[in-house]
Amino acid sequence: MVTTSVSSTPTTIEPKQSQARPILIIGCLFFIFGFITWLNSVLIPYLQIACELNNMESYFVAFAFYISYLVMAVPSAWVLKVTGFKKGMSLGLVVMAIGALIFIPAAYTRTYTLFLLGLFVQGTGLAVLQSAANPYITILGPSESAAKRISIMGICNKVAGALAPIILGAIALNDADVLVKKLEVMNPAQKALELNALAERVVVPYLVIIAVLVTLAFIVYKSSLPEIDTDKEDGSVAVGKTNKTSIFQFKSLILGTIAMFLYVGVEVIAGDTIISYGATQGIPFATAKFFTTCTLFAMIAGYLIGIVVIPKFISQEKALQISAVVGVLFTIAAIFSTGVTSVVFISLLGLANALVFPAIWPLAIKGLGRFTKIGSSFLIMALAGGAVLPLLYGALADHWNPQQAYWICVPCYLFVLYYATFGHKSKA
């Protein structure tokens, strides 16, 4: 997912000829966002085996990661006010590296709570990093082409997300199917040894991640990225809606925040559950580890479609309506089919999800005037839907079954459809 904490109509602060290097740096950051975020799709089944977890327990991986957006959205703004945006991006990368470092003792001790702590710290670093990095892509060029730059960043994000499960899955889930069968007949001592060895598989990958994050933090710190004049930005958003005294008077924002919360939840469910779900459909982990990549390639296809058709052929509102309807249809198709066909429909939810975030955001903050920044913070905090809904999915999977648990997505898409049709027009 690409998060954009844009608070106003941006003003270009970079001449065209000098945009390439800053955009390249921000593109690298969006690549990192996607790579770190979608590692969770492998960590869920991997830690379920290594730490002997049930479905609900395994989805605390997503909870620990995404809940940091709710907890850290406002503190991140305070941090950036002190550090500035460029130093804030470097700090975010360093915090992410610390989170990755926590994985090392977690792996050697096979302690699930330490893994979760590492994920929360990584999410905290991402909250800071994204709060700083997202505005840059809107100011590095003309405002009328900002949507195109955001789409390019989205593609960087999703390409990284597509690569992440393949790379980590090749290491962490290598011969996982054989191992799971062996574990069933092992005595406790043998089982502990095998599981310890499995847990230690992530040590080297995360050492590499630490090195990359620290290196990128240094590059960003030494770069010539421009600083954002937030005082000037505050002035530009201070107009409009002066008769309002509270952010809660904007019903379209409140409904948009709920829609964003539900949307992010189903996006994470579609990407992070599909490997485990594929295994329950009798598909080997050797194959299932590619399913999240398929979901993200479907999202990339959605981004490309959006670049071509919006707004030339259809409006953002219409795109959101179509996305919600397609999400309902694909979810129901996945529930009522089996095997590879069912898994394909879950992957295709990536296509349904691609245009939802870019459409909800402008509809939710439209007309907020001087409340735009706090409204944007509401939408950032709504990313916690990625923490809550996968956990509920896991509970339903344990008490029902993993396939029927996907019913949780249907009312979420229906609410998005309501928001696209009526909710965004709601007045206080």
Automatic annotation (TrEMBL):
CDD domains: MFS_FucP_like (cd17394). Keywords: Cell membrane, Membrane, Transmembrane, Transmembrane helix. It is found in: Cell inner membrane. It is a multi-pass membrane protein. The chain crosses the membrane at residues 23-47, 59-79, 91-108, 114-138, 150-173, 203-221, 253-278, 290-310, 319-337, 343-364, 376-393, 405-422. Pfam families: MFS_1 (PF07690). InterPro entries: Glc/Gal_transptr_bac (IPR005964), MFS (IPR011701), MFS_dom (IPR020846), MFS_trans_sf (IPR036259), MFS_TsgA-like (IPR050375). It comes from the Bacteria. The keyword Transmembrane applies. Gene3D superfamilies: MFS general substrate transporter like domains. Residues 22-428 form the Major facilitator superfamily (MFS) profile domain. Belongs to the major facilitator superfamily. FHS transporter (TC 2.A.1.7) family. Intake of glucose and galactose. NCBIfam families: gluP (TIGR01272). PANTHER family: L-FUCOSE-PROTON SYMPORTER, N-ACETYL GLUCOSAMINE TRANSPORTER NAGP. This is Sugar MFS transporter.
